[in-house]
Specification:
Elements (H helix, E strand, L loop, with lengths): L6 H6 L8 H14 L5 H9 L1 H5 L4 E8 L6 E6 L6 H7 L6 H12 L3 E4 L5 E2 L4 E4 L2 H7 L4 E6 L6 E8 L7 H25 L18 H11 L4 H8 L3 H15 L4 H10 L8
Parallel strand pairs: 3-5
Antiparallel strand pairs: 1-2, 1-7, 3-6, 4-5, 6-7
């Protein structure tokens, strides 16, 4: 069982949160490496190297919101064969998704928030623990996770992250490490996201070029062109409506348009899709 530093212990033992020499060296290496990230693959590899020694995990869910949009856009990175599209859709379900609820709760607290079946719910000065039932945690395949973020509704870009299948303990030291890492993680996410989806930063595509669309995004666009709903496209492609919604949001940003109709029309004019016969 993890050791939890209580409120009184925290006040008396703040010095114990200081990084040791090995951690300081790793921390500086992680920051240096973050400056060289250019794309999603770089981000994934960065999280699998020195970052793992500081915050051991197997699943990451990333949420990004630009000022011009009220909602966050989500994607996940995983090294676990147990977490995939089905679990991603489940934990981000609008009504009862575990990670969706955690992100909303983080918005109220603003400090690292651990979700676990092992410990009673606690709120400390710079982190909190939320105890949940074993059944939803088991269904999520996240085992134990922590959420944190950077920015708020007034920020030009805000990010939130969830680290799941967490090996690092749910305690003050892990929370402190996450607080130290979060500004650099935020910058890395923004850099990778801006390279992929320029309109998140409210900028036009350079030289009129459109960022490359994935095979799935092209397929979604073809169905948008004939007026299919997210639910209908999900049935056709055998994925959930939430997955289609995320594809649509990515498409809107890549094409720098405001709605589904504009996206289909622009893609047709650019020759990215063709009318189905």
């Amino acid at each position: 069982m993890d050791t939890i530093i209580t409120g009184n212990d925290q006040a008396n033992d703040q010095w114990t949160l200081a990084l040791n020499e090995e951690q300081r060296t790793l921390f500086m290496e992680v920051i240096e490496e973050s400056l060289r990230l250019q794309n999603r693959a770089h981000l994934f590899n960065w999280l699998q190297r020195g970052f793992q020694y500081l915050l051991a995990h197997e699943v990451v869910i990333i949420a990004v919101r630009g000022m011009e949009r009220a909602s966050y856009d989500y994607e996940y990175l995983t090294s676990s064969r147990y977490f995939g599209d089905a679990q991603f859709d489940l934990v981000l379900h609008e009504q009862d998704g575990l990670v969706n609820q955690a992100f909303m709760q983080w918005g109220k607290l603003g400090t690292p928030l651990f979700y676990t079946t092992e410990h009673a719910s606690q709120v400390h000065s710079h982190y909190a623990i939320e105890q949940i039932a074993a059944e939803p945690m088991l269904a999520s395949e996240l085992k134990r996770f922590v959420v944190h973020g950077f920015g708020n509704e007034h920020s030009r870009i805000a990010t939130m992250v969830m680290f799941g299948r967490l090996s690092s303990p749910s305690n003050a030291r892990t929370a402190h490490l996450l607080e130290l890492l979060m500004p650099h993680l935020h910058c890395a996410i923004v850099k990778v996201t801006s390279n992929k989806c320029p309109s998140v930063l409210s900028t036009a595509t350079k030289n009129g070029r459109v960022k490359p669309l994935s095979k799935r995004e092209v397929e979604v666009l073809e169905w948008l062109l004939v007026g299919k709903t997210n639910w209908e496209i999900g049935n056709i492609m055998q994925v959930s409506p939430l997955t289609i919604k995320n594809h649509v949001q990515n498409i809107l940003r890549k094409l720098d348009v405001e709605n589904r109709s504009q996206a289909a029309s622009k893609a047709l004019k650019l020759g990215l899709i063709h009318r189905k016969q």
